[in-house]
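Researcher: Structure prediction, please.
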Amino acid sequence: MTHFCHKIVLIVLYTFSLLTPVFANVLPRPVFLFHGVGDNAGDFERHDLPFRPSFVDLLKSNGFAEDDIVNIPLFEDPYSRLWPFDIATISELLKQCEEHGHILNKSLTPILKQVDGVSSFIRKTIKRDPARFRNGYDLVCHSQGGVICTGLVAHMSDGNFHSLISLAGPQLGVYFGKLSSEISMEISKLLYTTHAQKCASLANLWHDPDPNHGFMKTDYLPKLLSGKKDLQQNFLRLKAYVLAISPQDGAVVPWESAVW
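Model: Predicted structure follows.
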């Protein structure tokens, strides 16, 4: 994550803490951090440049106690650049599913499975120290993690989330730029299958803009965006929902997907 994103997160966390009187004597709130595709909990501990502090270091230097920063160690891969995907890469990932029953890249676990896993982790974490979390907690989530955290807030009816900050999270799905209709259709044929949807988060997030290519066959986005009343009610309990993205992001295509 860039230093600019670090500053955005700190401003939001402090602004919404200071403007909420009930939290005045317990500042700052605990914050859960969740990484993106091809990454791990080190996402928030990595230094962009040698002379810049990591995001976790920045939180600590701004008053966050170490116990108030919970870096979620789930669905992790060694740090790598998995993008861009092409037909050959996607075919190889789906072949892994056939051979192993799952994709070897844990960060590509289907979205709803990650939502379930992260929600279970959060519940267990809170249960160990309920007093620390009694006044709520924040989420800061990067890339695909931003989508998972959006789903987490919507599906976790017992959550006490105060703020969600999504950093370059493709909330409306991903599409690999200016593809020809033929290539787009070929990718959609691979990803809009029951097998692919149960296998890979990429399939859940694939959003082909051509309605003839079957977007509604995806297993995740329509469920989140369908307007179900219970999901809406859970989501509306958030005090703040912050979406940050740059047109120069490069991984989220189109970049506007991150600011639905």
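Model: The longest helix spans residues 111-128.
Researcher: Thanks, that helps.
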